[in-house]
Amino acid sequence: MHRVLWLPAIVLLAGCSSMQISDYAQTQPALDLFRYFEGKTLAWGMFQGRDGALKRRFRVDIAGRIEGDRLTLTEDFVYDDGETQQRIWRIRRIDGGRYVGTADDVVGEAKGESAGSAFHWRYVLRLPYGEGTVDVSFDDWMFLQQDGVLLNRATMKKFGLTLGQVTLAFIKQPIP
Q1: Contact criterion met (CB below 8 Å) for 145 and 124
Q2: pLDDT digits (tens, 9 = 90+) for 11-43
Q3: Domain map of the chain by residue range?
Q4: E strand or H helix at 12, and its extent?
Q5: In terms of CB atoms within 10 Å, which of 9, 26, 119, 163 comes out highest?
Q6: Topology (CATH level 3) of domain 33-169
Q7: 171 Cβ contact partners less than 8 Å away, ≥ 6 residues apart
């Protein structure tokens, strides 16, 4: 009987464990966020609801410009229904693999850390919803692959409840 009671507690605690950026310090290839996003990058992505059902697909054309310790990313989204959107990130490298960033639809500052082939990025995004907006928390993990593809998985939450997942694959375009 006691084993039956312990099982839910163990499952709950396992669900509370989270990845740490330091877990990836020795992984290769090393991701240099500024170098990767300098110039042109293409991405394809999708949003899946909490049940895993595909809700929306999109493509992103990204232009990155470095000025000192700042990276500006202009992201042009085209959704499968024809809607377009633009987000301009202003990312500043702090130290020790830490970053902060802002964009017009980001509430406050995004905070990020990198180690090895990984980058962890957390922020609150203000999204259009009905006649207004809703603030949603994003927890992004990016992993650079051997062939230069950067994979991104983001969990969207509101009030601690998972709303869905965003998955992206980035491909760096050659600098002319």
Answers
A1: no
A2: 444 445 588 999 999 999 999 999 999 999 999
A3: 33-169
A4: helix 2-16
A5: 119
A6: Lipocalin (2.40.128)
A7: 41, 42, 43, 148, 149, 150
